[in-house]
Amino acid sequence: MRAEDDDAGGGEFVGARLDAGLRAARFASPPSADEFAAAVEPRNAPAVFRGVVKDWTASSRWDPRRGGLDYLREKVGPDVDVEAMMSSTGHVFYGDLRSHERAGANAAYLAPRFQVLVPFSKFMNSCKSYLRCPNASSDSPKAQEILKEPASSEEGCSSSLESCDQVYLAQVSILNTENKERCSLEVLKEDIQEPTFLRGKPFSSINIWMNRAHLRSSTHYDPHHNLLCVVAGCKKVTLWPPSSSPYLYPMPVYGEASNHSSVSIEEPDYSRYTRARYMKEYSERVILNCGDALFIPEGWYHQVDSDDLTIAINFWWKSRIMNEMLEHMDAYFLRRILSRLVDKEMNKMVQENSVSCSKGTTVCQPTDEESGGPEQLKQKQVNSDSSDKKDSPLQTLEPSTLQALYELISLVHNSAEMVSQNEITEPTSQDAYCKQSNGSKKIAADDSSLLEKDPIAKIILPLKPLELQSMLLAMARTFPRTLEALVLNMLGPIGAEILTRKFDEMDQQATKEQQSEFYKTFYSVFDDQYAAMDALLNGKEMFSFQVFQSVLRQYIGVHADRPK
Description:
Blueprint: E1 13-14, E2 25-27, H1 33-40, E3 47-49, H2 57-61, H3 68-76, E4 81-82, E5 85-87, E6 92-93, E7 100-102, E8 118-119, H4 120-132, H5 141-148, E9 167-176, E10 203-211, E11 215-217, E12 225-232, E13 234-240, H6 245-248, E14 284-289, E15 293-296, E16 301-306, E17 311-317, H7 320-324, H8 330-358, H9 375-386, H10 399-414, H11 429-439, H12 449-452, H13 455-460, H14 465-478, H15 480-490, H16 493-509, H17 512-523, H18 529-556
Parallel strand pairs: 2-3, 6-11
Antiparallel strand pairs: 1-14, 3-15, 4-8, 5-7, 5-9, 9-10, 10-17, 11-16, 12-15, 12-17, 13-14, 13-16
């Protein structure tokens, strides 16, 4: 089924654009520790394990609908306080600290009204009240009365739990290797077991997650591998691979919620986050019932919908890659990864536009108005410049190549004020790009707009390498000043990138002698050959910077100014 046709209450689905190799594997029985380490974990893709924790004491004794709340309250005791998360946005818990707060001493600076710890026993009592009246709104008089009503002489909801629907026991530690003092529910470790396929893993923490009423967590990723185990209730988990970051608009890497998506899960603003309308097509949803577990690799985005009174345990551990990554290599890996993302985005941009052009879209077929005048004027220009040549190179060109040549000539002759010998005095195309880049940090969400801004690139992109070579040779021999003006004054960043890529493709299809002859003829039209080379290199670097800005925005959530 199509992801966009589904909603928060639907079943499992796989987005149409999610790569098959990234879809969650399903296991009816748990693998061995060796199988998990060799075949599951290295895939860095999710895996679902059905019934793998059904034999835990937690799965049989913690169910709120089968006396689990009394069991948990008695096991933990009356004097244990736990940190809770409170939401100011109802049942949705966003990663933005302005939308939810930690109701604990560690977050005292956030908001004074949330500077309380939640007594675990009283949270259990509020869950029991919810069981007696699950359909009542926490704001209704009846619900308020229930929440305040003591279940025994020592029970009752504190004033901080009067809106218990908005309280979430999230990431309350059962085990924490970095801060043992935070393990307020360590006693519950007796009721869970280390899954056999995780045997030997150096867990950084084991946590409990429990909600009173239905809630939704915002889309985010974790910096560790994660095994999420449901011991009561049901969770619907929507997953996206890290490569889907551009569609999820991650918050800035320097922010307090850098691992969260900026897109609202309830009311996404597609006018602001235009790519987000495709995010579901790259996702997969899995449903976890009591006894099921889900492996969520580090970096995978996930959004979780939890049914009423759902309880889960999760295990976090560092991946092998992160364990083996030495700090003194961070800068190198950062540069390599950014470089790889830039290369990927450049290839994607050029290839997608090339496919679009090959299908005959209007992007590659300028009208007479766009190309600078009617066909009669273009033909007149060619005839005037080549009337004294009996064997004109133009005669060897294919009709489509000749048409492209006409369009280039028209652009050069009609897009700027011309002076003697075709020397253009208007600001260059690259100067215009510089001003545009400096004047605004915002880049269009659709990167194909870069091609729209460069008419030269639109013309040369659909040409085959050898067709372009024959056209450029014809220009060099018949219209040398026009070719010079085109390269030095009109070729924009993406045009420079496409042209030099075409050069590389030409080289692969030509002999050394043919290569030498072509470049000798091409550069002979320039009074300063080094200026021509600089124009091409500067254009390529400017294009790379534009793509670099796009990468930072899509994957890291930040903008970068053009270097001075």
